[in-house]
Amino acid sequence: MxxxxxxxxxxxxxxxxxxxxxxxxxxxxxxWNQQDHLATPQNAHFSPVxxxxxxxxxxxxxxxxxxxxxxxxxxxxxxxxxxxVELADASRLNQIGEIIETxxxxxxxxxxxxxxxxITPEHPYLSFASMIAPSPDWFVGLNALxxxxxxxxxxxxxxxxxxxxxxxxxTERGDVGGNFSINNQANTTHEPISTLLGDxxxxxxxxxxxxxxx
Length: 214
Ligand SMILES: [Ca+2]
Ligand SMILES: [Ca+2]
Description:
The protein is α+β, with helices and mostly antiparallel strands.
């Protein structure tokens, strides 16, 4: 009796220990090329990635939804300051786990980058965004990829690379394939966030793969 109770306590201790957190390595690889995307400007780059682990209340972006001022500024100019204020607000509501920010990735001399994000049962989702730069208001990103669930635990192993198509933040005009310019007219009212279609948008701009770190 005594030993089985001890076993139960020990088991619970280890079970909860493994439930606490896991680190994931995220690899973002550029696929931006002249042939698929009609042009690769001299300064073609992906702006600093802003990545977060979060709960189900928080949303960095959602297809069909409207951009927040923070996502607008990231998508149009690659800036993260406003988004970080929004994240600080969400943090106060305990919606945010970890926040990671990388550096610009100029595709002439760097075509992939990695960063690590910690996932916990409390903040089981991964989201990130990075501007396709220069562009009117286009970005690549992931919205709420679930890496932990109560039923199956932490995602383990390696996620096959996910294609990241160009997403329109809906805040600026000029959404024509090959228009890699930041000088475009604003949309007077924001349009829903949507994947860009047509010439220059058929192929992913980047791919992301995710692997658990033991
Ligand atoms: Ca747009
Ligand atoms: Ca704007």
